[in-house]
Amino acid sequence: MSRVVLNVDSYEGNDTPSAEIARFVVLYGKASTRKHKIWEGDGLLVCFTDSCLLKSEDERDVICRSSALKGLDQLEDGRIINIGSWSVEIQERIATGPPQKPISAQKPEIQSPMPPMTPGNSENVENRKRGGFSSPFLGIELPKPLSKRSATFVPPLIGSESSSSGGSSSSTIQEKIPPFILNEQDILDRKTTSAVTVDTRFARHLRPHQKSGIQFIFDRLRRGSGKNGGGGGAILADDMGLGKSLQTMAATWALLKGSKTAQQLANSCLIIVPSSLVNNWKAEFDKWWRLMRFPAVIALTANDITTYQSTIKLMPYLVISYDLAQRHVEKLKIIRFDVMVCDEGHKLKNLDGKLRKTLLSLEIPRRLILTGTPMQNDFEEFYSLLDFVRPSVFGSIVEFRKMCSDRPEQLNELIDECMLRRTAADVDLKHLPEKHEYILFCAASPIQKHVHSEICDYMTGDALSLIFFARQLANHPKLLLDNLREKTEKSKAHKHSPLLLAFDGAHMPRGGVKESGKLTALVDMIKCFRLLQECTVIVSNYIETLDMIQQLCEYLNFKVLRLDGKTQVPDRQKLVRTFNDHRDPSNIFLLSTKAGGVGLNLIGASRLVLFDSDWNPANDQQAMARIWRDGQVRPCHIYRLITTGTIEEKMLQRQIKKTGLGCVIDAIEVGDTIATFTDEDLKDIFTFTGSATECNTHDLCECPCDGCGMLENEMDEEDDGDDVVENDAEKIDKSGKIDKIDSDDDEEADDEELEADVTDEVVEDSQEPPEATKPAVAAAGLRTIASLAELSRWRHFSPRHADTWHHFMTNAGLSQVDTDVELTFAFYQESQY
Ligand SMILES: [Zn+2]
């Protein structure tokens, strides 16, 4: 990027600047000599005759004042200039607003996430904003002070105006995220120069069938009014689970965005849904818009329709139930909607039905029906849907019937033109749905803390027994107590009887939920999942633990299906079929880690909880793969529960060190795991750190994120400013293996390096230990930070960061009930598909 040096002396003038002469949408970030700039956000550069202001996107904050810019005419898109201590990249010049115009009046133009569409800028404004983020969940827009916000630099995508001066860094990204242009043919035919693209928030996540679905909807709906027969209606009749609402949002959003250009495609969109689905749509919007301004008014009362009228520019969608729409059709008529979407549109199958007539009376030119069952054995019903979206194309019902018998081929052509239907079998499901993995750290209960420290004091040479005790304790102290009592009864002089002394008075477990941190969490989790209408599989290594969970689930009115080592083979398939077929959220599937081996297909569930971890990561991977596998159409959420600061963290660390959690491996040698423990290892394993830390594993990573949820390469690099090159060199020296760290816009490369790093680590364990900041760091078996490098691919969340934590919990599906779970920390990762 070329630079122009402008006169940017610090501005100390008064607060009422002179007339505005130009304004630009910009990206801004701290000035530095870095090749890859760290942009902190989108902003506005407002130029007056005697000064200029760098403002936040919503114009609320003035980031920097400076004296007047010279050479405004030279500020073409892509140019980088310095304003005070800030670097600013010009995105595009926009219309000059009157200087004293109220902020609210400017909002639609300035703050709108729908920037004017021209090739090469709208796409990349959005992209830069998202930076290296890769999913609706990951790209949390943090409501943080500006200095903490960051977005990595992503260069222009298409038709870059600045290609002649463009930096070399742009080429890789151009290939990585190609824009999904919907009106490509028009551009090729030179009908327009403005590209209408699918918003990158969607584009990054679309599967092939969804892309063709979006193109299909867009092509049909853009045509508008159907009075002359060329009308633009469509039926999207995909099977459940293929993403009808996602395709609808992406296509209609493109239509609405297009309205900012001369094309004027649409300004408003009415989405009518069954009452039971209103909240689902709200959640869908929430998911894709996250903390951005919510684009829809969800109508729950007639007043909301009135509200919508006044906010239509900011919130172009109105989501309303069929019932409410019918009752307040007169109010809806006042608003001239451009697009109507009818979810579960087979409700309109009755040709003379009142609902159908009411909706037609709205005279909305573009109509989209979403349905999983377009043809319900009745030709008239099917005609009713076709005629609703494409009036006059299919003639009268009599003509339709005649065409059916006389010219079926012609009819099929017409139907194909306006209806798209794919079944799950049609769609290439080699691409599995998203997989969200969580490691949740649960605070140990007071009894657990107490007994754990007693076990530490009670070190004997019998490591195997002690490890077993510690793991039982982490599941529930009552399990350990019962086990010890049983052993003591069998033989009065049992060598571990003294441990019973740990269970005295106040520390006598009675089997309550609150006595185990993980069990407390589990109860809330399964309640949440039931409310979310999702089925859950719970996995444990121990029969006694499964017994305990079973009792608890039954107490909570779940029906328990259980498969463990005792289950006969013929019964297994029956259990699995019952579970998968019913998909009843009040069913819980309990599975023992060892029995849940290969071949078990539990795709009826989309949530899986690993209540305890195995030493062997392969066993855990096998268990997790029960739900995330071929045939699964819903996003999967997999939760691993860990009691903070206990042996469970050590096991986790060992798993990570051994293989990296993300690796699916068929078999690894772990028979020697316990045998290879040194005394020092054991001491480390039994040291309880839960009172001193919210996550021992995170401490060991020495990760600087502080649990804010951002990846390391996304975090503000305030300190490394101009001397960043030096810092990079330092990193290279330390690791000795990584020869390039600086590629903050190239996640893939980072991942490869990490992988190589982790792999190396298994054989190469001879590096000097890092400075021990915590006693455990120096412990044998955990010698290097690099051995936990796998975790740098995960996001780390601490409840201390309330906003991001709340958002994390919501996305993890854990905010449905009033929770008193004490989670101390969490790791999160989404798999790419
Ligand atoms: Zn971290």
CATH topology of the largest domain: Rossmann fold
* Overall mean pLDDT: 73
CATH architecture title of the largest domain: 3-Layer(aba) Sandwich
- Shape descriptor reads globular
What labels describe this entry?
single chain, 833 residues, alpha/beta, Rossmann fold, 4 domains, 7-stranded parallel beta sheet, 35% helix, binds zinc ion
Question: Explain this structure to me?
Answer:
The protein is α/β, with parallel strands linked by helices. It folds into four domains: 20-176, no CATH class; 184-420, Rossmann fold (3-Layer(aba) Sandwich); 435-440 and 513-715 and 722-830, Rossmann fold (3-Layer(aba) Sandwich), CATH 3.40.50.300; 445-507, no CATH class. It is 35% helix and 15% strand. It has 28 helices and 23 strands. It has an eight-stranded mixed sheet with strand order 18-19-17-20-21-16-23-22, sandwiched between helices. Strands 11-12-10-13-14-9-15 form a seven-stranded parallel sheet, sandwiched between helices. β11, α9 and β12 form a beta-alpha-beta unit. α6 (208-221) packs across α7 (244-258), α14 packs across α15 and α17 (463-475) crosses α18 (477-490). It is globular. The protein starts with 19 loop residues before the first strand and ends with a strand. Bound molecules: zinc ion. Zinc ion (ZN) is lined by residues 698, 703, 705, 796. Pfam families: Helicase_C, SNF2-rel_dom. Keywords: Cell cycle, Cell division, Hydrolase, Mitosis. Interacts (via N-terminus) with spn-A/Rad51. Residues 527-676 form the Helicase C-terminal domain. InterPro entries: Helicase_ATP-bd, Helicase_C-like, P-loop_NTPase, SNF2-like_sf, SNF2/RAD54-like_C, SNF2_N, SNF2_RAD54_helicase_repair.
